[in-house]
Amino acid sequence: MNKTARFLSVAAVAAFASFGAQADEADSSQFALKFETNRTRAEVAAEVAAEAATVAQTRSQEPAGSRVVTYTSTADRAAVRAQAAEALRTGQIPHGEFSAM
Description:
This protein has 101 residues and is an all-alpha fold. It has helices spanning 2-21, 41-58, 77-89.
């Protein structure tokens, strides 16, 4: 019983100490980034404006994949209908319901 009590007390102290080790400021100051620069606000604004103008010139206003490809056929409509009718007559084109049984 003495060993068990000692073990539990040591475990409790270790757990309490680990919670204290994780404590920090409530305002997340450890994540604050500090930058030192020698450029003025106007220089940065001019650079951003120049980059924005370049991107606007190179970007397409058409969404990717939205263009439809058109195909111009040179075949005669009557000839295509005649070929389809002949293929249907000869059984090259299936018609009706197909049963796999």
